[in-house]
Amino acid sequence: MSGQTGTNVALAIGLAFISTAGYAINPAGVRFAFEHGVPVLTSSLCRVLAMVAFAGVMATIRPHGFYVPPHLRKPVCFLGLGTVIVSLGYMSAVAFIPVAIATILFFTFPLIILLLSPLLEGGKVPAIRIALAGLAFTGLAIVIGPVASGLDWRGVVLAGFAATGAATQFLSGRWIAGGVGPVTSSFWAHMISVPVVLAAIIIFSGPVSLDGFFAPFLSDRFASISIAVVCICYIIGFGFQMMSLHHASASVIAPFFYLEPLVTIALAALFLGQNLLPLQYVGAAIVLVALFGSAWVSRRPPGRTPAA
For the chain, which residues make up each domain, given as ranges? Predict the structure, then answer.
């Protein structure tokens, strides 16, 4: 695992913001494609295949581009597991519930990381982190409360499931940092995802012919454009996320992804007409205050700093 200096952390934060910009477009893009006839599982498969193709090409021009040391193959599998859970869960959630609600539910994952990181490292969970987690869930309840009776439980479960996948993705990505490069980890994580996404398509949609798969793209240019944007932005998001984890821990990096829900909610309102109620915006603000508070807590230096 690579060292974590002030310069490394600053670079990691910059990479995280670029990743956030790429990721933020995906939920609204997938929902837009869904409204133009593209099933969400097809969108998931497209972005997974796009990453396999891109990372595969990059790996071929790098020495030992596909090699994973034996002791890191298990965490790479966990990275793949987390990746496919996010692809299937988060992207499918937007088909059942508004993008803004799915995004807020999904973004409980940095709190999961902040709470788990000290436990995984053998330390205690600071009381301030528990308090901030409680504040975030209070805001979440305010957001969901006014529309709880009308929410499709499938979307809620899928978004929550995706949050656990994202936490797994971040923690395993940091675990392999320094031993496996971002290109290699991106390639294998998505190679692991391909058969799982294909199986999900067959289970929930039945066998699909190539003509059936490409039909939405051939009949509606907006479907093709939206999926192209989703794939490009996903490559940017995932690639820069893996690079950021090579320079700082998951608990430091994850909170800086809180810019993503702001951008995603704004895009959903602008392009999909999915506006929240005023009270829900208050709840969303409370969630974001708690999350930014968590980011501040994670950046505070410990009481004792080891000598360099």
Answer: 6-104+152-274
- Asked if residue 143 lies in contact with residue 137, where contact means CB atoms within 8 angstroms, the answer is no
Residue 101, both tokens = 């609600």
**Alpha-carbon gap, residue 33 to 36, rounded angstroms:** 5
**What is the arithmetic mean of pLDDT over 270-281?**
76
Across residues 148-166, what is the average pLDDT? 86
pLDDT score of 77? 92
The answer to whether the pTM exceeds 0.70 is: yes
Which amino acid type is present at position 23? Y
Crossing angle between the packed helical segments 182-205 and 73-93, to the nearest 10 degrees? 50
Question: How many Cα atoms sit within 13 Å of 21 on the Cβ side?
Answer: 7
- Sorting pLDDT into bands at 50, 70 and 90, what band is 128? confident
Distance in angstroms (rounded) separating the CA atoms of residues 242 and 169: 10
Cα-only R_g, the chain = 19
Give residue for tokens 């409680």.
134
Backbone angles phi, psi at 25, to 5 degrees: -80, -25
Q: What angle do CA 282, 287, 292 make, to 5 degrees?
A: 125
Residue 113 near residue 186, CB atoms below 8 Å: no
The residue ranges of DSSP E strands in 170-220, in sequence order, are none
What share of the chain has pLDDT > 90, as a percent? 18
Residue (of 268, 217, 288) closest to 97 by Cα position: 268
CB atoms within 10 A of CB 150: 7
